[in-house]
């Protein structure tokens, strides 16, 4: 089986008003995606998704569409989609980074192979090591304290047992927000915080010292990516447990985090890591060093969220039982593009046993939400 065509389709979908996110990176009211439709010489079609947010990963919907169309697609034409290392190597040979764009192409390859063999992707990855239903945490935006408290209490009432609060904004407002949420959810609900790299060392130290009595289980990305020395110092001096996210896009980042003793756990997901193959490589490295992993989210849509679920259920070191993650992205958006979407009920997400990624895309819905790129001109 060979890849004969790769199409990149940019789309824009609004979030539900109550799910719009506020973080150290700003507001997130709409999501831009690039959907990939890959066709093989046997007529099998695979789908992938690039979840792009320029303030987070540096990728835009226009750039991702262009790099897939002009560079990544030509690089993988004629390849066997069942050879992920070859696919990754060919894409790396024509472009560095661009992890979410590369992940979309790679996802589509896994989907095509699964559909051709009649197997779900998690079986291609070695089989399920946990239930196909997982419990998620709930990520709460950097809202005003009273709003954050009310929304957190409502999520706990809906069955969530872990609440993550966005911080990394104004330090005093961060402290007030976290304290308000802890009071609202009581002492039995796990509380984590995520600064998205928004604090500097002094701000992080100030906030974390003032929140020592709030029983914070994990501090996610308290400092900007790449600041290994201060991250290690913060972790050791304050005795906090650090969850690395933006600090880990590739295998080199993971090695540095581990070698410099910067983290207690790592957040992985196929989009950020450039695909399932690379995410599994980093997971294997973490497992060698006894570092647990969890699943993160960039508010993926149906295809991207399904790839995340296949990764979770097939990768032992992604210990979502100990460190709950996020596979709720589709439920944040106003509608689905899947004829058979993931089942999301309260804190639980369930993966289907369907072939490939298990998502059948409604291309009519996709076309209705397509956005223009490059001013209608081709630059390839």
Short overview:
The protein has helices at residues 61-76, 84-94, 99-117, 121-124, 145-157, 171-185, 201-210, 228-238, 251-259, 270-273, 276-288, 302-314, 329-332, 363-368; strands at 3-14, 21-23, 26-28, 30-40, 45-52, 133-135, 138-140, 162-166, 190-194, 216-220, 242-244, 265-268, 293-295, 343-345, 348-350.
In the CATH hierarchy, the third-tier topology of the largest domain is known as: TIM Barrel
- Structural class comes to alpha/beta
Gross morphology is globular
Which regions contain 5 or more consecutive residues with pLDDT less than 50?
none
Q: How many discrete domains?
A: 2
Percent range of helical residues:
25-40%
Word description of this protein:
The protein is of the alpha/beta class. The chain folds into two domains: 3-117 and 363-372, Enolase-like, domain 1 (2-Layer Sandwich), CATH 3.30.390.10; 124-350, Enolase-like C-terminal domain (TIM Barrel, Alpha-Beta Barrel), CATH 3.20.20.120. It contains 14 helices and 15 strands. The strands form four sheets. The chain has a seven-stranded parallel beta sheet with strand order 7-8-9-10-11-12-13. Helix 5 (145-157) links the parallel strand 7 and strand 8 (162-166). Helix 1 packs across helix 2. The chain is globular. The relative contact order is 0.16.
